[in-house]
Amino acid sequence: MPNLTIRNLPEETHRAIKTRAQRHGRSTEAEIREILKAAAMPEGRVRIGDELAALGAAFGGIEIDTLDTRRSKRPMRVAKFT
């Protein structure tokens, strides 16, 4: 798992995070992880895979086992760039 070093963090900010961590019953490091996770991946974020699945479902969707029957049986042609 990656490590992160934060330099020049104001003492006031560190104290506030430490207090917040105590309130939540976590270590300061665990609290910082939670803060970063919430900031980077908010609950209401748009997840592209979910959106694509919803779009496909809105148009009737497609069954995975039917993909093979729709695919051309002809061999692929190799692209030539000259």
Notes on the protein architecture:
By secondary structure, the chain is mainly alpha-helical. The chain is elongated. It has helices spanning 11-24, 28-40, 48-58, 67-70. α1 (11-24) packs across α2 (28-40). The protein has a domain at 11-59: Arc Repressor Mutant (Orthogonal Bundle).
Task: Assign the CATH topology of the domain at 11-59.
Answer: Arc Repressor Mutant
Average pLDDT reading? 87
- Briefly note the structural class of the backbone: mainly alpha
Architecture of the domain at 11-59 in CATH?
A: Orthogonal Bundle
Poorly predicted regions are none
Q: What do we call the CATH homologous superfamily of the domain at 11-59?
A: Met repressor-like
Helix content: 40-55%
**Number of strand segments:** 0
Q: How many separate helices? A: 4
How far apart, in Å, are the first and last alpha carbons? 45 Å
% residues in beta strands? under 5%
Task: Please provide the ordered H/E string of secondary-structure elements.
Answer: HHHH
CATH class identity of the domain at 11-59 = Mainly Alpha
Tell me, briefly, the overall form: elongated
Nearest-angstrom radius of gyration? 25 Å
The major beta sheet can be summarized as:
none
Outline the secondary-structure elements.
Blueprint: H1 11-24, H2 28-40, H3 48-58, H4 67-70
